[in-house]
# Entry
Amino acid sequence: MPDPTGKALGESREIRGASLRDCGIEADGARIRLGLLDAAGLPADVTLPAECLAQLVMTLPALAAEALRRRYRDPSLRLVYPLGDWRLEATPDGARRILTLSTEDGFAVSFVLPPERLAAMADAATQRPAPLRPH
# Structure
């Protein structure tokens, strides 16, 4: 039996977005909203449970990097952002460190580091890195 859009039940409906309009969070924090403009220039919203945020955060960078490589047919390309600031803090138990990297426009991501990983990073910072081909 078709739904109101003419699709059979269980069949996926594609929303072909042309641009991201805005994003929002419901007042109670239970859902997020991605506001799009579709291919016809009409507004469309995708709402998801807030629990999907972690999935999106973990998935989108890999998708963006792969899209960049495919689009330019260059496996050496990387999606990079200028570093605005960084912060290194101890976890409450003091056993690990939390490294937060942020851009000037407010994008930030944090990583928890065991001491041996932090030491390896400090070591690597003093070495000459292998060059990547600039794009």
Q: What stands out?
A: The chain has a mean pLDDT of 90. The chain has three domains: 13-49, 55-80, 85-125. The CA atoms of residues 96 and 114 lie 5 Å apart.
